[in-house]
Amino acid sequence: PRWESVAIMSEILQPPSMTLKRKLAGVGLSFETHRNQADGEDYILDRVVNYFVDCRSGTTPNEGVYAHNMKTRRDLAVMLLLDISGSTAEMEESGGLSIHHKQMQLAYHLMTALHGLGDQVSLYAFHSWGRTMVRLVRMKAFKERCIDSRIRNRFAMLEPVGFTRTGGAMRHAARKLQEEETGVPYQLLITITDGFSYDHGYEGEYGEEDTKKAIEEIRYQGIGCLCITIGSNQQEEKLKNIFGKASTLAARDYDDFIHNIRPALLRAVRQTRAG
Question: CA–CA separation, 164 vs 220, rounded Å?
Fold first, then answer.
């Protein structure tokens, strides 16, 4: 019924928790110089001169004579890639949200939290129909500076359909990421999927090996890769084999995702050219 769909989307499109924001806050930072500090590594010459002038004149001096380097500058660009293939429509035996809805919620919360922290973020959904049609659906482009009703409406229109040519979608997304002039040292591709690569002529070991090869190619370009599943029936060891050297997070549920997202992201950041 329509009212159920509205209720599900309302749940999915809730703002991310402060816990998630705190987990992400320290990821992808670079050093920047903070001037006029009471303590630090370097003196600021004109401030030191003013300090002694104030002391000699009997005026209370400003003690902010130092420059201090701290990791506070956001230097992260993230391309989120969301699997919307037909296999994600699978429901849990206990009911509740489908894999599709869980992945949407996770993608929306990651996008919104990273955007709120000041990172550059884009999100594309993907599915495929054979080798010549790997489709990326724009949910949010890097140039879109606010997450508004237009972006939320795009989420509401998503339906799980088609197949999962994961390697092709990841290559396409990585090209888009490289074409963007982000100007930041840390670039990540985060793929949210159920872990089942399948399409016409893309079954079994062939699809798995192509996904692994795509990740190797992307990492060689200096882009960190993180692959996330949530509530998937795919075996964790199988996921690690499919995703090769990418950072992986096989979350049982949303709470498990929250608990493990920070170390998984840090592993991906270390794969980048700057990491």
Answer: 23
Alpha carbon dihedral 55, 58, 61, 65, in 10-degree steps, equals -20
Question: What number of other Cβ atoms are within 10 A of residue 274's Cβ?
Answer: 15
Please give the chain's pLDDT, 275 residues, in tens.
454 578 889 989 999 999 999 999 988 755 555 467 677 677 777 776 787 787 888 888 788 766 656 555 678 999 999 999 999 987 765 557 899 999 999 999 999 999 999 999 999 999 999 988 999 999 999 999 999 999 999 999 999 999 999 999 999 999 999 998 788 888 999 999 999 888 988 988 899 999 999 999 999 999 999 999 998 888 777 888 888 888 999 999 999 999 999 999 999 998 887 66
Q: What residues does each domain of the chain span?
A: 2-28+75-270, 30-72
Domain made up of 2-28+75-270: CATH architecture:
3-Layer(aba) Sandwich (3.40)
Please give the helix or strand (H or E) that residue 147 lies within, else none: none
Q: pTM for this one?
A: 0.83
DSSP state of 100: H
